[in-house]
Amino acid sequence: MNSETELAPAVQSILEAARERSGGDGVVSVDARSLPDALADAEAAGRVPVIAEVKPTSPTADGTRDDDPVALAQAMVDGGAAALSVLTEPTHFGGSPDALSRIREAVDVPVLRKDFVLDEAGMDIVEADLLLLIARFVDDLEGLIAAARERGFQPLVEVHDQAELETALEAGAEIIGVNNRDLARLEVDLETFESVATEVPDDVTLIAESGISSPADVRRMREAGAGALLVGSAIMDHGAGDSDVTGNTRRLVDAKSSDHDGDC
């Protein structure tokens, strides 16, 4: 794990809370829905592969959405989302394992559990199709990737710079997310993906995360090599109703030409 002295106080607080949470009662076993297949299906249908995020709040969000998470998730799928990301971190993001379980039961697309998983015990909380592992915060990435796969999860390894990308590839990661948000300053720069996502093997699924708020951003990340886009705030924060969530999702999945530019 890299030094936490460089992390924003909010991130340090999140990590401390993650260490204090206990694991599950037993080892989880998952029959996972394939993310690569779901992304390929979206491409075949003419949609940009978007992983829409159910995120009630966050340290960088303005306010909290109290909507039923299942209704939000269904609205995202109705808008064309190829997969979903669901926050299960309770203290800083308002998420819960129960919400993920309810969402996964209600939809037929792959669901990513997005949380700060630091060890094997942290995996055994709830069934999901994918499990987030943040390269910067774990000591034995290769071991955790193996442990996740033993449980049936598809591990999504998140990186922020070239060194972390190389670490992820060496550890055997097959699904990698490049986070445009710098966890040291909580600032977002889309150039991060463009600078990091180079010389990645063709058999690795590469996902651009954070800061994608418009169709132009979607096209920019796709041109830089993103096989999919993980989008939260641009879908969650811009509208009060489920129809707004559906519309926000649809504007992004349809962002293949400049004809779809506009606010999201």
From TrEMBL:
<feature type="domain" description="Indole-3-glycerol phosphate synthase">
    <location>
        <begin position="28"/>
        <end position="238"/>
    </location>
</feature>
<dbReference type="InterPro" id="IPR045186">
    <property type="entry name" value="Indole-3-glycerol_P_synth"/>
</dbReference>
<keyword id="KW-0822">Tryptophan biosynthesis</keyword>
<keyword id="KW-0057">Aromatic amino acid biosynthesis</keyword>
<dbReference type="InterPro" id="IPR013785">
    <property type="entry name" value="Aldolase_TIM"/>
</dbReference>
<comment type="pathway">
    <text>Amino-acid biosynthesis; L-tryptophan biosynthesis; L-tryptophan from chorismate: step 4/5.</text>
</comment>
<comment type="similarity">
    <text>Belongs to the TrpC family.</text>
</comment>
<dbReference type="GO" id="GO:0004640">
    <property type="term" value="F:phosphoribosylanthranilate isomerase activity"/>
</dbReference>
<dbReference type="InterPro" id="IPR054875">
    <property type="entry name" value="Indglycph_syn_Halo_TrpC"/>
</dbReference>
<dbReference type="InterPro" id="IPR011060">
    <property type="entry name" value="RibuloseP-bd_barrel"/>
</dbReference>
<feature type="region of interest" description="Disordered">
    <location>
        <begin position="240"/>
        <end position="264"/>
    </location>
</feature>
<keyword id="KW-0456">Lyase</keyword>
<feature type="compositionally biased region" description="Basic and acidic residues">
    <location>
        <begin position="251"/>
        <end position="264"/>
    </location>
</feature>
<dbReference type="InterPro" id="IPR013798">
    <property type="entry name" value="Indole-3-glycerol_P_synth_dom"/>
</dbReference>
<keyword id="KW-0028">Amino-acid biosynthesis</keyword>
<dbReference type="InterPro" id="IPR001468">
    <property type="entry name" value="Indole-3-GlycerolPSynthase_CS"/>
</dbReference>
<protein>
    <recommendedName>
        <fullName>Indole-3-glycerol phosphate synthase</fullName>
        <ecNumber>4.1.1.48</ecNumber>
    </recommendedName>
</protein>
<keyword id="KW-0210">Decarboxylase</keyword>
<dbReference type="GO" id="GO:0004425">
    <property type="term" value="F:indole-3-glycerol-phosphate synthase activity"/>
</dbReference>
<dbReference type="GO" id="GO:0000162">
    <property type="term" value="P:L-tryptophan biosynthetic process"/>
</dbReference>
<dbReference type="Pfam" id="PF00218">
    <property type="entry name" value="IGPS"/>
</dbReference>
